[in-house]
Amino acid sequence: MENEFYLMFFAAITILAVLNPFGNLTQFLAMSDGLPLRLRKKLFATILYTAFIIVLVFLFSGSFFMSYVFRVDLNDLRIAGGLILIIMAVKNLLFSTKLATQDFSHYQEFDEKELLRRSLIPMAFPMLVGPGTLASVVVIAEDGGIKVALGAVLMAFLFMAILFYYAATIEKIVGKLILHVFSRIAQVFIVAMGVKMMIVGIKGIFGLS
After folding, report:
1. DSSP conformation class of 111
2. Does the record bear Transmembrane helix in its keywords (predicted)?
């Protein structure tokens, strides 16, 4: 039981690294700047709920699609997922200034229903939950079991829920610059995770120890 908890904990850290909570928090704060605090919290809660449902659906159906629809094995998915993580992290490291400087003032013109509808794409998918997250969740489920993967997803999204609920307070205390630095540090670890996934996949395909 204790070993299972450790597996869940470290898997949750992996999922959190891919979700990039601090980087997405700064982007979501910029996109919701000027909105009432109540509406901002509702927006963040809706984004998290939608992202959570997407991950759960893929967690329980990913193995089926992998084995019976696309007919790829776990090592193929490791290589593809690792490559996606590397590309995603490098892109965020080198080419993320466009979103940071983009004007989102037009979001304030929408009513609450329209704002929530327009924000789910791209905020929930693919900004918060993207292909890298979905591939990582399936790999975790195949390696550690569905119970470990489900526990890791719950832990990761619980942390995200707390972080996003206190987003405005965290922004005031820490500042956008520190959140931005944390985000960039996370991208480096995501690249490392992607490289590791690809190496394990390549070794598995060629039967190397």
Report:
1. -
2. yes
Question: Is the N-terminal amide bond of 122 cis, ω within 30° of 0?
Answer: yes
Q: What DSSP assignment string belongs to 22-69? A: HHHHHHHHHHTTTS-HHHHHHHHHHHHHHHHHHHHHHHHHHHHIIIII
CA–CA distance from 143 to each of 46, 78, 203 (Å)? 30, 11, 15
Decide: residue 174, CB within 10 A, 0-12 exposed, 13-18 middle, 19+ buried.
Answer: middle
- Which one-letter amino acid corresponds to residue 127? M
Is residue 133 classed exposed, middle or buried when 0-12, 13-18 and 19+ CB atoms within 10 A define those classes?
buried
Nearest to 205 by CA among 82, 72, 85, 76: 76
* Of the candidates 201, 203, 186, the residue with the CA atom closest to the CA atom of residue 92: 186
Read off the tokens for 30: 């910029």
Task: Work out the pLDDT band at 119, boundaries 50, 70, 90.
Answer: confident
Nearest by Cα to 160 from 24, 9, 10, 38: 24
CB 149 within 8 A of CB 55: no
Euclidean distance between CA atoms 127 and 121, whole angstroms: 8
